[in-house]
Design goal:
β2, α2 and β3 form a beta-alpha-beta unit. This protein is globular. The chain has helices at 31-35, 45-62, 73-85, 100-105, 122-127, 160-172, 190-198, 221-236, 246-254, 265-273, 309-319, 323-333, 340-344, 350-360, 375-386, 392-410, and strands spanning 13-15, 38-44, 65-71, 92-96, 129-130, 133-134, 137-142, 145-149, 181-182, 205-207, 213-217, 260-263, 278-281, 294-302, 336-337, 363-364. It is of the alpha/beta class. The longest helix has 19 residues, at 392-410. Strands 1, 2, 3, 4, 7, 14, 15 and 16 form an eight-stranded mixed β-sheet that branches. Strands 9-12-8-13 form a four-stranded mixed β-sheet. It contains 16 helices and 16 strands. α8 packs across α16 (392-410). The chain folds into two domains: 38-142 and 295-364, Periplasmic binding protein-like II (D-Maltodextrin-Binding Protein, domain 2, 3-Layer(aba) Sandwich), CATH 3.40.190.10; 145-292 and 369-410, Periplasmic binding protein-like II (D-Maltodextrin-Binding Protein, domain 2), CATH 3.40.190. One of its GO terms (molecular function) is maltose binding. Belongs to the bacterial solute-binding protein 1 family. Keywords: Signal, Sugar transport, Transport.
Amino acid sequence: MRRRILAGGAVGLTLVLALAACGSAEPDEPAAVAASRSLTVWVDEARAGALEGLAGSYGAEAGIAIDVVPQTSETLRDGYVRAVTQGEGPDVLIGAHDWLGELVTNGVVQPVDLADADAFAPAAVEAMTYDGVTYGMPLSIESVALVRNDALATTTPATFGEVVAQGEALVAEGRATRPLLVQQGDGGDPYHMYPVQTSFGAPAFRADEEGSYTTELALGGDGGRAFAEFLADLAERDVLDPAVTSDVATQGFLAGESPYILTGPWSTAAFAEAGMDISVLPVPPAGDLPAQPFVGVQGAFVNNLSLHQDAARAFVGDFLATPEAQLALYRATSRAPALTAALDEITDDPITTGFADAGAQGAPMPAIPQMGMVWLYWGSTEASIARGEGDPAALWDQMVANIEASIAAEL
């Protein structure tokens, strides 16, 4: 019988492919041969439709049946780990690179051979590498960028401080109400402000000589304190505001309240639908170093306990690494392909190519488990600075001490 594994009551999108009789073995056919004709893939709902079509064409040629099982983004990772450790789960998982720490620690993914790593964006390959081993096939990349309302500004200064000053001039003229929009919320949002932070020389974690993240924090010291002071200045200039949530920032930009917003490709569809003329630009630095946003990479992982490992590796390594596959996923999600040859074929979408250029300057979000201990202290500290609840440098130093203590307690 075909092996189909569904989680949480999700309904598999069964693809009936080239083998008309793939649902059962022929009387004299070994069960292992029939089983090898099927694969199960778990993916988030946004990519399920595109992946279903891709799997259909691939399966028809390869002579296998593929079940694409859509999952909610919130349950996909934990559901996968739980299923595989119980001897179940799919053969292939499509998910985010920053899951790697948990996936590798739990032994639920296996190394993936990138036949030509140079064919992908360097940050994408780096993101799929953990402790020097590549575990995923890079599919798409995303990061924040500086998005400009071309009706309010047609040129952009070279530094973040000058961008804010340009926005302030428009506010003084009555053409805008905020110099720049960046989502925060009561808990802060260090993800969106990270490229500015790195320009002060304060990345989240230090990297070793091979480029892999260590567990040593790097967001403290003089660079971190200088960034904290800069955050306080932004708060005074009406840029950093806990009252500006994601929805407030997006709606404000749509309403023409600011010439700029720091955001990602998840927001720009609304701008395009509204008929706005926008430009997507790399985030300019505020400090002396380049601004490096976090780069998020979606990739394909092979279940380390799959009963169909050869077929899964072929699907991931031979097909999902093709321009055809990556362009189909791009059309479904508006995320830039990780494969350079696929990105080069996108010549009529300056928004996607603009985000790709912005992400090219970035660094993958750390996939180490210790990253999960950073966010709460990090965000709440930025929110405290924005509200003026203490000396910025002292608040930052306390944040670093709290995070280091949390990491030490787990090591």
